[in-house]
Structures are given as C-alpha cells and as structure tokens.
From TrEMBL:
<feature type="binding site">
    <location>
        <begin position="251"/>
        <end position="257"/>
    </location>
    <ligand>
        <name>GTP</name>
    </ligand>
</feature>
<dbReference type="InterPro" id="IPR004520">
    <property type="entry name" value="GTPase_MnmE"/>
</dbReference>
<comment type="subunit">
    <text>Homodimer. Heterotetramer of two MnmE and two MnmG subunits.</text>
</comment>
<dbReference type="GO" id="GO:0002098">
    <property type="term" value="P:tRNA wobble uridine modification"/>
</dbReference>
<feature type="binding site">
    <location>
        <position position="232"/>
    </location>
    <ligand>
        <name>K(+)</name>
    </ligand>
</feature>
<keyword id="KW-0630">Potassium</keyword>
<feature type="binding site">
    <location>
        <position position="236"/>
    </location>
    <ligand>
        <name>Mg(2+)</name>
    </ligand>
</feature>
<feature type="domain" description="GTP-binding protein TrmE N-terminal">
    <location>
        <begin position="13"/>
        <end position="126"/>
    </location>
</feature>
<comment type="similarity">
    <text>Belongs to the TRAFAC class TrmE-Era-EngA-EngB-Septin-like GTPase superfamily. TrmE GTPase family.</text>
</comment>
<dbReference type="GO" id="GO:0005525">
    <property type="term" value="F:GTP binding"/>
</dbReference>
<feature type="binding site">
    <location>
        <position position="87"/>
    </location>
    <ligand>
        <name>(6S)-5-formyl-5,6,7,8-tetrahydrofolate</name>
    </ligand>
</feature>
<feature type="binding site">
    <location>
        <position position="251"/>
    </location>
    <ligand>
        <name>K(+)</name>
    </ligand>
</feature>
<feature type="binding site">
    <location>
        <begin position="276"/>
        <end position="279"/>
    </location>
    <ligand>
        <name>GTP</name>
    </ligand>
</feature>
<dbReference type="InterPro" id="IPR027266">
    <property type="entry name" value="TrmE/GcvT-like"/>
</dbReference>
<dbReference type="GO" id="GO:0030488">
    <property type="term" value="P:tRNA methylation"/>
</dbReference>
<keyword id="KW-0378">Hydrolase</keyword>
<protein>
    <recommendedName>
        <fullName>tRNA modification GTPase MnmE</fullName>
        <ecNumber>3.6.-.-</ecNumber>
    </recommendedName>
</protein>
C-alpha cells in the first residue's frame, strides 16, 4: 500500500469548500493534512480540542476580520481522510467562504483537486476504491433505489463480496500449487474434478455478479418509458401530467444534451425514466425528421412504450408504426379522453392530461410493465455492480477463469501455465477493490469527483 506521503503533493495540507457554492445558511471549508491545526491557528483558532465544536472569531493571517465561525478538529487518524482534518463552518453566501478559503491558502494550504479528500481516505486505508466510488454515487444519486445501493456499497457490501471472490481465486491457486508440487500423487488429496468444480463455481459467481450491471443501471437511471404518437396527440401534456401527478421527486437529467425531453420519476418498485419524443410520421421537414430519428433510437431501447392517439384510428396507427421499432411492452393510450367519450369502448386506456382522468391507472399499468421487463427484479438491497469499471473488472476475471478451465480440461498446458490465468484473475479483482494501488486506476476513479469531496 502506498501512502499519501509517497505521492507528489501528498504531504500538502489541502483545502476546499465542502458545501455547494452560492447562497446558503452555512458553508463548510475543510482542511486535511499535517498543517491543518497550524493553519486554523493562523486564522485565530487558539484552543481547539479534538471532536469539539469551538466558536472562533476568524481572521485572515494579516489581521482582517472574516467571520464569526465554528471550527471542528478531527485528530489524525480518526477523521474522514485519516489526516488531521479541520472543518470551518462559516456563514454561507458568495463572499465569506471565498475569503476564508483564500485565507487558508495564504496560511499555507493548497487548493484540493477533485476527489482529493476521498483519495486520501483511500490511500490512508480508511476505505477502499469501491467505497470511494460509492461516496460519489451517493452524492450523484437521483433515485432512492440508487441511494440505498450506494449506502450499502459505502458500508462495504460490494467490497466484501469482491474480497470473498478474490479469496476463492487464492484458494484455487493454492489447490493448483499443491497439484504442481505433488503431481504424481494420482489419488492424492486433490482430485482434478475438485479443481474443475471450484473453478466452475467461481466462474459462475463472477458471471452472476457481472450480470447485475444492467439491474443497477435500471435503479440508477430508471426503466425507459417512451411516449410515442402522432404530432399533437397530447404527448407533452401527458409527460407533464405523469411527472406532476405523483408527488415523488422529479429530477431532470442533467449533463449530456439529448434531443428528446426526459425526466426521472422516483417511483417504487422501479424508478421510471420518461422520454417525450417527436411525433411519429413521415415528413420532409429536415428538423422534424431528425427528431423522429431520435424517437426511433429511443424506441429501440424502450422497455415500455405508451402508444398515444386521440382517436381509435390514431392509436392503431401509432401501434403499427412502432411495432417493428421496439421490443418493449406497448401500452395503448387514448389521450384527451375528456374530449371524446366515444373512445371508452375502443382500444387504449382512457387518459386526460387536462382533467387527470386515468393517470393513476396508467401509472400502475406502467409499473407492471416495467417490472415485467426488468432484467430480473432488482431490489436495492442486493449486492450489485454499479459502474462500468466494476463490470469490466469482473468480466476480465471471468474470462481468465474461462481460459483457465479450457487449459485445465484439455490438459494441453502444464498446470503452472494454466495457473497464470488464475493469477491474472486475482489481479483484476485486486485492481477493482484497490488492493494494489495503481496510480492510473486512482486517477481514473477520482477524475469524476467534485472538488471538496
Ligand atoms: N461535518 C462532516 N460531515 C460529514 C462528513 C465530513 O467529513 N464532515 N462526511 C465525509 O464526507 C460524511 C461522514 N463521513 C465520515 C467518515 C468518517 C469520519 C471519522 O471521523 N471517522 C473516524 C472516527 C470514527 C468515529 O468516531 O465514529 C474514524 O473512522 O476513525 C467522519 C465522517 C458525511 N458527513
Ligand atoms: N382537452 C384536452 N386537450 C389536450 C389534452 N392533452 C393535450 N391537449 C391539447 O392538445 C394540444 C397538443 O398537445 P401536446 O401535448 O403539445 O401534444 P404533442 O403530442 O406533444 O405534440 P407534438 O409535440 O407536436 O408532437 C395542446 O393544445 C394541448 O392543450 C387533454 O387531455 N385534453
């Protein structure tokens, strides 16, 4: 294990705003490192005690008054990072936190890089890499299901599972080593079948965990529900009504700009990701055509499609138009039901965005379709892999196990050569957990963190 000290800048005392920037009641500025206490002292904190909140008249090292603040000191190693940590709670807003940050730098601290506090926690052995990612997942969670999963990972749920799998690899390596040492003992204590069985069940366990990735994606992003139909069918109104109907948390997806409007409804048993698409029809208009191409792409991925139309004819036309473009469950929806009572006997759920009629029934129908389409029903309490890094690491270990089994069963390779695959599998799992700390793995993980975390 490398320690923070062996890294460039690892001895520095780092500082960052730990709370979101902008107007707020309180802001927290966090210092971590050997000089944290000295720096706090330079800002006017004279009598700090570990794990006590102390009120301090903060001032710049040059004597300028800064704020009436509260300071907490977490003495190393009993802190988030494992270093001495000092937290300065100031009044929030735009000016005070910036001035206090600048004063910390003037007193000798260095502004932290993204994720550097958590990186130190990993380097100081306070948490492993998977737990560090869980910290980021917890902050980024947009659904309560993802929140539960991140919390369980932070508590070491996934790490323990990965460590157990790695132990199984080591166990298998030991069996092989025994076999290599005593090859002539034909009916020695280790039958070749025992090695084969152990390798197969390990391969299966790796594959099972790897295959939880799509389930976790559903918990993270929601089940994709596409609203399709001809122009003016009332799709956007339905989208808004569905999202407004439930009082659950609604969060627009930030980040990548998409050519369709989407929002996640945080709903049990599964979060739903609604997409409002451009109307489906053949068109010469270039811009509209592009929009329709986007709809087609979403349709191809959709788990549930609401086939909308304000008349029986429109519903039928929509169903026909999407039939070859989606493999999701299609729910016919008769929109604007308040305008046309004659639809009651026709196809589709009667729904009105205007009056709210049928919305609840539609949501339940979507829930049922979502559950039916989910890749096994994930529950947020299962151990799952939530990141591509996890999936790729498990896939690499899994493939090595397959290679090992091939070599072992064919008997073509000598055992020591076959064992190389087990070594590679173990390395993949070690990388995943962060047992061997390769700098580039750390760089990749922490690049995505926000500053102050
Ligand atoms: N004020 C504050 N709140 C926070 C954090 C923080 O750093 N500061 N956290 C961070 O982002 C999270 C909590 N995580 C933490 C993890 C470990 C320790 C800590 O001091 N651990 C010591 C002592 C354990 C104990 O006495 O229970 C240790 O593990 O030895 C503190 C916070 C969320 N809330
Ligand atoms: N009476 C009534 N009018 C509705 C209802 N839903 C939508 N409308 C009206 O129908 C018109 C079209 O609604 P939109 O929601 O914009 O339809 P759209 O399918 O998204 O249209 P495009 O974006 O062109 O594809 C608007 O004037 C809405 O006010 C409804 O449930 N009842």
């Amino acid at each position: 294990m490398v320690t923070a000290r062996q890294l460039p800048g690892g001895d520095d005392t780092i500082v960052a705003l730990a709370t979101a920037a902008g107007r707020g009641a309180i802001a927290v500025i966090r210092l971590s490192g050997a000089r944290a206490i000295d720096i706090a002292r330079a800002l006017g904190a004279s009598a700090l005690q570990p794990r006590h909140a102390t009120r301090v008249a903060l001032q710049h090292p040059n004597g300028d008054p800064l704020d009436d603040a509260v300071i907490t000191w977490y003495a190393a190693p009993r802190s988030y990072t494992g270093d001495d940590v000092v937290e300065i709670s100031t009044h929030g807003g735009h000016v005070v936190p910036a001035l206090v940050l600048a004063a910390c730098v003037a007193a000798g601290a260095r502004p932290a890089t993204p994720g550097e506090f958590t990186r130190r926690a990993v380097l100081n052995g306070r948490m492993d890499l998977v737990q560090a990612e869980a910290v980021a997942d917890l902050i980024d969670a947009r659904t309560t299901a993802m929140h539960r999963q991140a919390l369980s990972q932070l508590d070491g749920g996934l790490s323990r599972r990965l460590l157990a799998l790695r132990d199984d690899v080591i166990h298998l390596e030991a069996l092989i080593a025994y076999d290599i040492d005593f090859p002539e003992e034909d009916d020695g204590p280790i039958a070749p079948a025992r090695i084969k069985n152990a390798a197969e069940s390990l391969r299966d366990a790796l594959r099972a965990l790897m295959h939880t990735a799509p389930q976790a994606a559903v918990l993270r992003d929601g089940v994709l529900v596409v609203i399709a139909g001809p122009p003016n069918a009332g799709k956007s109104s339905l989208f808004n009504a569905l999202l407004g109907e439930s009082r659950a948390l609604v969060t627009p997806i930030a980040g990548t700009t998409r050519d369709a409007i989407e929002a996640v409804l945080d709903r049990a048993p599964l979060p739903l990701r609604f997409v409002d698409t451009a109307g489906l029809r053949d068109t010469a208009d270039e811009i509209e055509r592009l929009g329709i191409e986007v709809s087609t792409r979403y349709l191809a991925q959709a788990q549930v499609v609401l086939a909308c139309g304000a008349s029986a004819g429109d519903i039928a036309a929509t169903c026909e138009a999407i039939a070859t473009r989606t493999s999701g469950t299609v729910i016919p929806v008769h929109t604007k039901a308040d305008l046309d009572a004659s639809g009651a006997d026709g196809p589709g759920l009667q729904v009105s965005a205007e009056t709210g009629q049928g919305l609840r029934a539609l949501l339940y129908a979507i829930d049922r379709a979502a559950v039916a389409n989910a890749v096994g029903l994930p529950t947020s309490d299962d151990v799952m892999v939530t990141r591509e890094r996890h999936r790729a690491g498990l896939a690499a270990a899994h493939d090595e196990l397959c290679e090992f089994l091939l070599a072992w069963e064919s008997g073509a390779l000598p055992a020591p050569v076959a064992a190389v695959h087990l070594y590679a599998a173990r390395e993949s799992l070690s990388d995943l957990i962060g047992i061997v700390d390769t700098e580039d793995v750390l760089d990749r993980v922490f690049r995505e963190f926000c500053i102050g975390k």
